[in-house]
Every structure is written in structure tokens, then in C-alpha cells.
Amino acid sequence: MATVLVPGSFLPLSAAQSGMWHAQRITPGDPIHIAQYIEISGPVDPVLFASAVRLAAREVDAIHVRIVEGGQIVEEREPACPFLDLGDERTALAWMRAQLASPLGEDSLLATALLRVADDRYLWYLRCHHVIMDGYSGPMIAQRLAEVYTALAEGRDPEPGGLGSLATLLEEDAAYRASGRFEADRRHWLGKLADLPAVPALSSGTAVATSRFHRWSARLGERDAAALTEAALSHGTAVSGLMIAAVAAFVGRLTGAQEVVLGLAVTARTTPAARRTPGMVSNVLPLRLAVRPQTTFGELVGQVTREVGRLLVHQRYRYEDLRREVRGRLFGPVVNIMRFDYDLKFAGHAATAHPLSTGPIEDLSINLYDGSDGRGVRIDFDGHPELYGEAELADHHDRFLRCLTQIAQAGPDLRVGAIELLDEAERALLGDWGGAPRGVPGGTAVTLFEEQVRRRPEAVAVVAGDTEVTYAELNVRANRLAHHLIARGAGPDRYVGLSVPRSLDMVVAFLAILKSGAAYLPLDPDYPRDRLAVMLADAAPPIVVTCAAAGLLPPPGAEVVMMDTWTGDGLPDSDPVTALLPGHPAYVVFTSGSTGLPKGVLVTHAGLPGYARTEIDRYAVTEDSRVLQFASIGFDGAVLEWLMAFSSGAALVLAPAGIYGGEPLGRFLAEARVTHAFVTPAALATIPERPLPDLRTLLVGGEVCRPELVRRWSAGRRMINVYGPTETTVVVATSDPLTSPDDTPIGRPVYDTRLHVLDPGLRAVPPGAAGELYVAGPSVARGYLNRPGLTSERFVADPSQVGGRMYRTGDLVRWGADGQLQYLDRADRQVKVRGFRIELGEIESVLADHPGVGQAAVLARDDQPGDRRLVAYVTGTADADELRRHARLALPDYMVPAAIVVLEAMPLTANGKLDRRALPAPERETSGREPATDRERLLCGLFAEVLGVERAGADDGFFDLGGDSILAIQLVARAREAGLGLTPKHVFQHRSPEALALVAHEAVETAVTGDDGIGPLPVTPIMAWLAERGGPIGGFSQTVVLRVP
Fold first, then answer.
1. β-bridge partners, 487
2. Closest by alpha carbon to 330, among 276, 284, 365?
3. Using one digit for the tens of pLDDT, what is the confidence trace for 10-29?
4. Can you give the CATH number for the domain in which 938 is found?
5. 901 shares its domain with 984
6. What pairs with residue 734 in β-bridges?
7. Around Cβ 848, how many Cβ atoms within 10 Å?
8. Which residue of 705, 720, 733, 858 shows the fewest CB atoms closer than 10 Å?
9. What is the C-alpha to C-alpha distance for residues 935 and 999, in angstroms, rounded to an integer?
């Protein structure tokens, strides 16, 4: 027998309700609701219909509650059902959309109306807050309303309904959560997700869940729907199972992931009482599926059948509980199979249900109507408006329909990697975006420089402190040294070591090496001796150019040229004549290697002319430009700098030794009147804001550029993001000038370079889809020095050009709608820190070589916004200081971990693998920067106060310091008291005092209207309880008006 609810009684919230109400508090101005309308094909009596709504509502307990802190209070409610004669369906739909965009009425969790669109067509609109109702409840309520209205229309009393009690639903929920079944479900899910990789999604960002969305919808024609049904039967599954598998294959193809995790919406109603009680019970749980390119669709369908079966056994365990226990994103797109029974008749007139909103959307919700109701197959894509534009969503929807068509037409042996997602128009578009043909004449770095010598011999070529050297003077010095090197065996396909600190001698030396026909091998004097020894042994240069200050130990047998004593007297100053060709190496740069040893990259001259022309055109380099030389000679960013200057006739301005960033670099930029500079984001972040009127073009690259840096530095100048791996000629893509801090693409291909975004089967992926970036054209390096196996692995045949080669970058990217590439992530464990490319395996190998280390693991952690740090984890007897000293002997400074954490044992997943996500953040006092503005100081203080820490830095993340959604609400409230207007959504999106200071506004105090607190007081539950027992309820009361965030 159903439990009868007593008005005024207090009930707890179920776990499902608590989760939904908590989500609502994060976005108070964005009601989380579900909504539908029932289309009735026949005349309806509005007065009778309103009576039916009131009678049916009395049987639905969930309608008669008011949500309060920690629970819900039972209140008798009679929902109104106003009648609106809107005349046509378009007007009615517009009215309903407007209602959904506005808040529910004050203290109301439900809204309903009857709309007339024709004499024989009526729409019943129902909107409920998700805290009281889920999608499964809609058919129950609609069915009961149809029964009641039909009875009234026929002049009889409605028969008793069979809807269950909310109290029973709550009792079952509490009993489950206290049971062994709950613990068993918990163990299942934690084991299932123990080694969960990064979850792929079709969008690249995250956003707070919302009930607002863009929708793209289509209903399949009879022929297509029949083909889909037949395909499902051939696979031994239902249409719903086939479509879940299709979504998994679709997401895998678009993201390049070999494992996808979908969110599967489930009813979570496993008891008879739950199946007949309207209320909020539904759940969304992760469905983990392997979608490797070689997986056949038949195998995938079988996998879906097995995994969905296992999921349903454990479907009562809440998403909210999993979210608290499992780090990171739980799933990508949510699949919602809509197969509820809507076989309705209102006084004999047929009715059809139409969903308006199915609940909150975190990313993408795919609603599949599998045709089991006889109305055909329908597919809705509901995309979060902050993550998907309408055009992008429409493109995804169209591709999914093409995917379904191929699946329906092919047999079970269709492989996931063979599903074609592109149409001909997209192929043509990708061809346009991926190439920048310019036909730049071939040449070498030497011909580019010597052309400027001929054109402007008296122009300043190099500025080093107070010294200025003209192009003619620089050419003479370089020629003499080049002749000296040639006499000692330098020439094409030979390597000459270069270890000279940043100076005029360094410029003379690398130009001389290039003029000799040889490739220069940069040997940064700041590198550890052990690492330099490995590089010298690998390249075996017969000649090394250095100086006393470098302190280099040359390899045995190598001839050494000391720049501080070499004069060049008696040597010719004419341009050397060599057999140098564009295909010969220009330089050899060593980069981090995954095997534990650095690897050398042979970059030829072939790509230099095309990139030089790109620099001149896109960076607006002119003869009067002054180009900063700031990058280490061991970093190919130095090539970007000298090539920019020497191919355009500009001056190369050398930054003094000892300047690495901060105020000294800012001061030098101003005093040296630098017009063009390349600075990594990590170094740029250290430069205080100051007027730099001469700096016309600022290039950033080597790592992700934070939005705050774009805000600070893009105004008043051309700020460009550049991208290029070491295995190509410096830069292969440049962005358009950056104007929005929320959009920092890596850009378009440089001249005569071709960029391909491909899936694991080397198929082009559609615009907006993730794929690995491949580079083709003259900018591709020759390969790795003395590593033929690795060269053949990373430098592969170009399927688009006979005899062509491509370089596999390992970077995951996607094409944006504007034809610019957007960087997403790495496909391997390689990372970028402060602009340097690092293989974590090399650091792990060095640490593991220490006799006191048992195991070693290294992560690049972003525990603070914009502060990526290397953190090492080791087991064994060695301490952190000892290991740091050991690492410095073999690794350059940028590869030495910032923190080393000694563990008793490495955390393992349920499968016995290293659980990298369980490795703890290093314990430390916050080292965030000091606040620079009054707003930043205020917010830093509020962070510390709310989070209970001693201090917070301006770039510390709120959640990195222990914040959560409840504390975010407290932070917003205290900020308002202090005069700053913020919302919890701001805290979730911007996180640091630095970023929040930019979006906060002055909180304007508004007058609070209301009564004076004098007059009749409605009876409260506690007063009713006291009156029932004969106690006094008269007395004094006090009112207060509270403002909440």
C-alpha cells in the first residue's frame, strides 16, 4: 500500500535529487529542467482539460514538494494549466522555446499549458525541474492525464490510478545506499574505471552543465529506417544496440581514439515501485568500448551487448558518487535511447509526444528514437552552446547519418577504420586549408644571406651591446672563417660543432659553418658535460668551433677553432664556392629521446626559403626591423630569429648574456628598440607590463599560450602563435594575429608546406575532428642522425604525392571553422615545458640508473594554471636532493624535475599497471606570484580565507588549492560583500585570482524591496506540530532579507 504524504512533513532528498539540486546551485540562473509537449490530434475542451490536470496532479507526489536545504517539504499544490489560442504550430513552438529560456515561476518546480494551434490540434506543454522528475516519468504522467481527461469527457469519474509513492521511492533509495549491494556496485565501477585514459570528446573544452542547447534533428526515411532494422537483425541486436555501436565508432573515428567512453542514460529503476512512481531517479553511467581501426562492426556490436548488460546490473550506483571518486572526465557524448511508451488517446483522439529538453548537457547528448513506437527512427544531437556552434553541430549530425548509412549497407565485417566520414566538398576544403603553395624559388640559408649582402652591404646586420656590424663586415668575417673550415675538411654532409655563448662570434661562427657547406651542430655551453659528450659521440664532428668561456671538452681527434684567439689573417674574404644544395643539412639539433638518450635531427636547407618568405609576409618584417636574438643556439627558435633578420635585410639584436626573462628582458626590449621578438609563453609571463611602442610583432610558441598572456600582449601589436616540431624547418604553421584570448590556434601552413590531419589509418579526418598532424613538403627534415629505424617510423610515405614523405608529429590537432589548426594534445607521452620538447622516458631512464632507485615515473603536472612542472616519483632509498644532483649530471636544466616525490610503493590500477592519475601532487607551500593589482590582492585574500590556506598566489587555481563547488559559492558571496561581482560559473571557468580579476565587475548594491515583517505569518511545519499537541504558537517573530550568490 502506498505511503500517504502529510502536508508539512519533511522528507530527505534522494541521491539522484541531491545531485541535481547541487548542479542547480552551480548555475542558479539556468534552471535544469526536462520538458515535452503532447500533440493531440483532435478537439480538446480547455476547461475539462484543466480539471484533468489538477486531478491527475494530485496522484503525483513529486509535484507536491518544495526543496529546502537538505531535503524537501510536502506541500499541496494545484498546478494551473492556462489555455492559449496561438493559432499555428510555429507560434506555439516559439512560445515554448521562450518559456524554456526563462526561469520557472517563483517557488515553482513545474509549469504546464494547453495551446491551440488549429481547431483539431492542441499541444499540451509540460516543463518540470529535473530535481522532481526524469524522462521516464513523462509517459506515466501523460498516460494518467489521458485516462483522467477521457473519463471526464465521457462523463464518468476516473478510476483509481496506479502511481506509486514518493516516500517509498525514498525509502528504497536509502535502503540501497546502506546495503551491501551499494558497496558491490561501488567496487565494480571503481575497478572498471581504475585505468581510465583521457576520455575523448568531440569538443576540445569543458563547460558547466546547462539545459540550454543547440539541437539538430532528423527522422530517417522509411527505406533507411528499414535498412537499419534489417542490419540490426543481421547483427543479432536491436536498433538501439546498433546505434550505440554506431555512436562509439563515430566518436572513435572523429577523435582518433582507440577507446571511447560514452555516457549511457539509464532509468536506474530496478524495482516494481520505482517503475510506477514519477520522480527523479535516472542516471548516466560510463560505457567503455574499444574501437580500434581494425575492429569490425560485428565485433563492436557484440562488445556493446556485453558491456551494456554489465552496466545495467550496476545501474543504481550514482554518477555523482563516481564523479567524487574518479578523477577527470568520466565520459564523452551521452547516448539516450528514447523508447518510452507514449501510446496515448485523449477521449479517443491520438496523441504524439515531442521532447523539448531531456536534461542537463555537459557536452553532447545524442538522443536516439529507435522506432519501437512505430513512428520511425529519429536522431537528435543536442550540443552545449558554449562548446558547439550550430554549424559545427549540423556537420557532426550529417556525418553521423552518413556513418549510419554505411553501417546499414555494409555487412558485419566492415572495419571501424574503413568508415568514410568525408564528402567531396570537405575533401576539397581540406585541400585548400592544408596547403599554402607559393612557388618560392629554391635556395639555401647562404644564398638568402648573401643576397642581402649584395643589396644592402652597409645596413646593420648585427647589434651586440654597443657594437654594430654591417652586412658587408659580417660577410667578410664569416667568409674568412668558412675558408678556414673548408681547408680543414668542412663541406656538404659534414658536421661542425658550435659551442659559443650568445655573441657576435657566435653569429660569425654559424654563418661560416653554413658558408662552408657543412651543417652546424649547436652545443649549448649550459648543457651538462655528460649530455654534450653523448651528442659529440653520436655526431662525431671533425671540427668544433668554440671559445674558452664555453668550457667544452672536444672529442678526441677533432680539430678545435677557438674564436677568442682565431684572427683569420691572410684568409680570403670572398664568398666560398661549394657544392652546397638545398637538400644538404643546414643544422643538427639534438632533442629529447624516449630511449633515455637524446637524438639528433638533420634539418636541410630546402625548407628555409619558403619559411623565410612566410616570415617576411606574415610577420611584416622590413629592412628597418630589429629582430631579437634571445633563443639558445641549441633550440631551433634561434633559426627562426636569424633567418627572419638575414633573409630580409633587418638587424639581428643580441640579448645580453644572463637575461632569461622578467624585468631585465622587458627593459632590454624597450632600450634596444626591438620590433620583432619570439618569446616562449613561459618567459613572456615573467615580463612586467610596460610600454613597448617599438615592438610591432610578437611571436609566441613552443608551448600553449595562456589566455591571460593574449589579453596582456596582443593589444597594439601583431601577436602570432607559431608551431613547428624540431623535425621540420623551425615553423610549419602560423596563426592569424591573435585578437581573442579564448582562441589561440596554431594556424595555417607556411609557404610550400602541406599539413595533413589524419586518423590511424592515414585517412583525412573532417573539419573539427581530432587527428594526428603530418607535415609534408620541403620543410621535412632528412631524418634522425644514425637512427634509421626511428627515421623510418616517424618519416613515412605521403599517400597524396608519389615519392613524397611526411613527418608524423605525434600532435593531435583539428581544423577550426576558420581554416586554422587548433592544438589538442599529444598522442604519446612527449610533453612541452617552457617551450622545450621532452620525452618523459628519458628522465625516467636517468633516474632509474641511480643505484638507490627501484622504480621511477615522471609527469608533467599543471597543478597551477600556466605553471607546467616536471614531477618525478621514485621508490627506493635515494632522497630527493641526491636524485636531483644525479639528474643534473645527465640532463639539461629544463629536464630536471622541479619536484621529486619519494614513495613507499607506486600506485597500481586494478590491472596491476602504474596508476599515473593516483600519483599525488607534491606537497609544497604555494609559490604563486604576488598579486599585482588591488583586485588580485583582494581575491588572493579571499582565496586564502575561504580555502583555509596561509596565502594564495595570483596564478594559483581555486580547485588546485582544495576548492569545491560549495566553497566556490562561499567565495562568490564574500567577493560580493567586498564589492566584486562574480558567479560560481566564473570560478569554474577562470579559477585563478589573476583570471577572475579580469572578469569581475563592481557589485552594485540594489535596494531590497519587501514588507516590514509585520502581519499574518503562514503556519510553518514546526508550528503545525506544536498546535497539534496543544502548545502555544502565538508570540514574536523576526524577519531578515538575505542576498545569496
1. none
2. 284
3. 999 999 999 999 888 888 88
4. 1.10.1200.10
5. no
6. 722, 748
7. 15
8. 720
9. 11
